[in-house]
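WARN no homologs supplied; continuing
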Amino acid sequence: MDALVERLRAHRTLAAAPREQLAWLVSHGQLQRFAAGEMLMRTGEPVVELSVVLAGRYSIRVHRGSGWRRVMEWRAGDVGGLLPYSRMKVSPGEVRTDEPTELVAVHSDHFPAMIRECHELTAILVHVMLDRARHFRSSDLHDEKLASLGRLAAGLAHELNNPASAAARSAGVLLERLPAAEAAHRALGAVRLSPPELAAFDELRRHCLAGAAASALSALEQAEREEAFGNWLEDHGVEHTVGEVLAETGLELPTLDAAAGEFGRAALGPALAALAASCSTRRLAADVERAAGRVHELVAAVKGFTYMDQATVPKPVDVARGLGDTLTILRSKAKSRSVRLSYEAEPDLPVVDGLGGELNQVWANLIDNAIEAAAGGHVEVSARRAGDTVVVRVVDDGPGLSREVRDRMFEPFFTTRPAGEGAGLGLAIVRSLVAQHDGEVEVESRPGRTEFRVTLPAGHPAASEN
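OK structure emitted
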């Protein structure tokens, strides 16, 4: 016993405790030795012992949804296992020895007596517990952020691909049609339109560019419209191939009839060919502009969501903007699951003081979960002032949460998703981050309606971010 007490007096963590308290620890503990690779504890097994590591090394590996990952290890001089005042009940992962290990194990049945009789030793162990909690929380937050960003990146890549492909496709067609458009305008210039003909041409172009009236037509209706335009052109001695382009514009046949009388027979064909070329190139350029605008919108949303260009220090946060950025990024996932998203933010919503990136992590987790729950349904997101607070609600019309799930949903590593699709950290992180911002998160659920409600203290509008 004396030899073991002396070893504890040289222990990096416990050396500061009085000798008699170390002797108490030895008298109530058990010396244990393990070979390398031994399983000390499996995921979900009760944790009932304090472990003072004398030699060797063991570590814990936790399943993060995509596989096992080592999150912490204990070497000679460390203290692991269950600690006084710890709320840990079961092991969050698999604990194995990495090399031959020797430790002193003290059962939790002795904790009340240790707290009562060994004040200095207990204080040391409480500090160890706090440091370990900070480590696990930091690791959990880091892993959940990576997993969340991975999910968002996959959806964002799909969302970016659509406008990027549209822009490339429209730009390619535009390049192909430019030579024909230039030739059509040269031919139009050669016929030297009279002032009445120029006026008629400008009127046709105004109708042509006013909007694609035929865009709402069915495929059959559009085919009939193209045939009607083609027949009209043939009746007026004009090449019918431009009819397909003119049929996609806002032009109507009565307008063509009215304008046709203003053109001489030699001018009508070149005028309509130039009109079709002009409208086509303008429409393609507008398509490129819209697609590029959508890409810019998505990139701006990512920048706002991640706060990538701002220091990670507390500052006034625009909650409405953060929710908008988050919804923009998650819209692709909502579409893939046939979920309709709606969003309403009260005008002049006050800011909240905190870290914008972490609050966006809260919104992303809650909205992502709601989309998962409401497949084929509806998710409502709102932000309103309530006295001196800002209240954010995320409501889905999914099947609701059982009592068992509600009781455990904020536990780390608890998940209802299939293996490999979730690490069970999202809601635990949500609660932790909301608490860091002096707020609270509540949930109400019944079949057809589940509401997560986050309440945060309002900040000072004058300091709001631009």
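Residues 313 and 355 are 6 Å apart (CA to CA).
OK
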